[in-house]
Every structure is written in structure tokens, then in C-alpha cells.
Amino acid sequence: MVSSIASATEDSLGTRFRATDGRPSKIWNSHHYALMFYAYILQSIREPTQYYRGHTADLKTRVAEHNAGKSPHTAKFTPWKLVFYAASETSELAQDFERYLKSGSGHAFAKKHFRIG
Question: Collapsing DSSP states into helix, strand and coil, what is residue 13?
Fold first, then answer.
């Protein structure tokens, strides 16, 4: 059996792709790291009915900033836990999905599919 790395092809940027499904096999390529952008939903641990929706390029750091009280919008409901995130290749897509999650239909979608308010 041939491994997916051995049978991979490269695009013009040097990103390796699996032969079976075409998705990148790593989040980096030979030229640079492939930066991901995230739309996310946090839930307050202290006040479970409180949610915050946002977007970022560094999810781990951003959640830590929320929990450290560095965001005025979330400081009064710390600590927070991450209950949902979606990764995308562009900042615009993450921002668009955040905007959707903040809309009425986005709230209904999150409630139905993720069981969160």
C-alpha cells in the first residue's frame, strides 16, 4: 500500500494533496504556512445563557484573551468555553459566517444544529 504522502501531487504553491480526495494533507506547504481563519461561539461557564460569537486567525489565543478579560464585550461573563468553531481559508469567509451566526437565522441554526442559544 502506498502512503498518501508518497502518492500525493503538488499544486503551483507546493501544497501537498492526497491522491484520494484532493484535500491538503497538512496545514502548511513548502513555501509558507497555510493560515486558517475561524468563526466561533463561546459560552459563559458562569452564566450559561450568555454566548459570544466572533472570528479570528488564532483561536487558542483569542479564547485565552476572552478568558483574561481583554475584550470589553466578554469580560463580565468570564470564564468562557469554546462550544463551536468553523475553519475557513479566508478571513472574509470567517467574517461572513460570524455575521450569519449573529443574525436571527444564525441563532436559529446554532440552536437547532449545535443545541446552543
Answer: coil
